[in-house]
Amino acid sequence: MPLSALLTANMDKATALTTWSEHVMNTAATRFDGEMQIARKLGGQVSDGVATFGFWTPELLDHGVSDGDIFLEVLRAPDTLDLCRAHQDVTFERAYLPVARHEAHCFAVVEGMRAGTRDQVGDFYALVWRDAEGTWRRILDPLAMSLPYGAFAPAELYDVAAMQAGRKDAAYFDALKGDAPHKFGPPTNILQVHVPSATAGGTLASLTRQFKRLAERVTAGLPLDPSDQLFLGYDSVQLLPVEPTTVYEAGPDFWTETPDGDSVTVSLMRPDTTNWGYDVVISGMATVNPVLLETGRPDELIDLIEVLHTFPEKPKTVVFDVVYGHSDNQGLRALNSHFFAGPNMYGQNLDYRNPAVRAILLEMQRRKVNFGADGVRIDGAQDFKWWDAAAQTLRHDDEYLQSMADLEQEVAGLTYRPWMVFEDGRPWPQEDWELSSTYRSVIEMQKDDDVFQWGPLTFAHNTPFLYTFWLSKYWRIREILSHGSNWISGTSNHDTLRRGTQVDTKLNINTRLGDTRMEILDKAYDNPAVSMLTYAALPGVPMDFLNATARASWGFIRNQDDKYGVKVVAEEAISLKWQVDEYSYSVPANFARLKELGYETREDLARFFEFLPALVEVTDYNLEEIATLLNAVEPPLAGPHPFTVDGLKRIARAWMDDMHSYCNVSNSFTTLDPNQTDYMLRLREFRRARPWLRDNFGSRDQFDYMQPLDGRVVFTSLRHAPDGGQVYSIMHLEGGPTGEFDPLRIGLPGLDGFGWEVALRTPNIGSDYVGGPITLHDSIGLVFTRTADKVPG
To answer: Which Pfam families match (predicted)?
Structure first.
């Protein structure tokens, strides 16, 4: 029986939806209010076996398409479809069903469709229309809840209610019920995770198994390996974006079809792109990047959240990182032109002033966070802008940012508003932004008192491995003391580590951090004294990037570029000097693709990378000229000969794929220092036991650096607990040794008296040190505590 005979289009219900949408638009207080109501009905949704579809289609009005040329396309795969196969050719049955339309909204209601679940692949769908030449054109669903083959392929109808009904963390949400909506507040600290590089498996399911294993070991009181300690001691886990990203510019596509009447044969490729997460196309933001799904099922994201919400001793909250401040240019292929407001340095601006676009973006966010996130981090909030034609200037859309914070979520019977964090460095990209940014624009604008921003030492351009960095940033540290309670703190995150690998190695490098560039970079972003400053002294919410604490590599990882891929690699080439030494390159599992292309040693690749960036610049990125000049080098360069444009693109792709493998945290497990990982875990537990350290410095708290400098920067911090206790920290951040002195006898007011005990020592201080004279070197620090009853009256 053909698929069309198994499906029934309920035109009465579809027409009722258009009548309802017309009423909403006619009676809503504003057009935006009306679009917000309609957005709830958009996308593919299933209830009681009936599938409902809604699309915003202004392009059909632009082209003057008649109702008789618009259909819902349904594609049903055979039961043998395996989402985990790398490649397969599958014949789908196809049916076209009528839709109802009112202005720019199309609706369809269908009985008999198969909805996807954890155990079943559902029917795929899209809206299609026929032009005057009889050519069929497809409109994809930007609000799809399952995209097994990415944002540029038909969506899968998915039973979200069934997915939510099986949650194993319902008790977590039930315990929070009370006055609605519940408002989540900040955690004590955060572990930032890039899913593809966090485990050897590189998927959400693999990360879930990692935390499940840790939960069982913690419950059983079993010993912890250094690799275990990396993931523990955190109140919250923040995932780098898990939305669908760009695809291969030059192909192959993950969905390539050959039509054949009522059926269509599709060449299916399992999505396998590598990406750091921020190259989004906006379409599909409500669901999960299929590259991260081991099973192809979005349930994997809920599985991870369940394990974190039910973690023994104390649940871990989950923060989603969402990117709505821009779209990659590929987004133009996935969405109609009304979504966009013109190009920018990342790709395309979004038209936030369009009421329908504004409503759909917010609805995407609502559906995504309904996977069960407790918090939301907004990437690049300074990029949410609109063009004020009257004033001929761009303005920040702070009202939209407030709307993002106001969204209410509904999970497991709990209505709540998540904790909100904004990365906002305005007036970036103004040239003096590092000086003029207050990092408080959103905090001061929004109505909630627990809105957070990334702080000044957390934003991108921080280089703690350059001499004088800490003293040059002292003015920012003073700001943290008085304003930091609502800032994310710490210097190790995905952005700062990436920027660090792009720094010119000829600058004034702090060679006291290590004997090699790799050691210097690793210690700079996993520095025991800096971590002590962050966790034991400064206010705010500390955040650590897993790749930094694991001393794994990191960089701009994206293998989809064709046109500019060689240029991107030329810009990243300097990271070879920072992150790869001869031994690392020689390991057989590392850089296998580049070795196959002829770069058998690191020296071979390094020599090629000395030429490539210079030629990219002098030729103004003319690939033909670059290839010609590379072929003329004497003695000849290693690599595929002769160099061609296609050959250069293969080299760029090999670099990105090899670096993606090289950056995996699991590669660092055998080289972890157990003293460092144990110290870092104890430091995190110290902060978790003293959540009051998040607060700004009070009138009795003190922070300074030891004077005279004498060629070193040593910070001191004295904090007073609400119960009268004290925490005193002293940290050597850079420079030569101090000479022997007693840290408790430096004349700092409030240190007088007795009763001090050593609470934390950086790893290079022996456990036998309990006080008295000591010489501090670069990256060494101590934390002392004193209970209230021992503080002099």
So the answer is: GHL5 (PF14872)
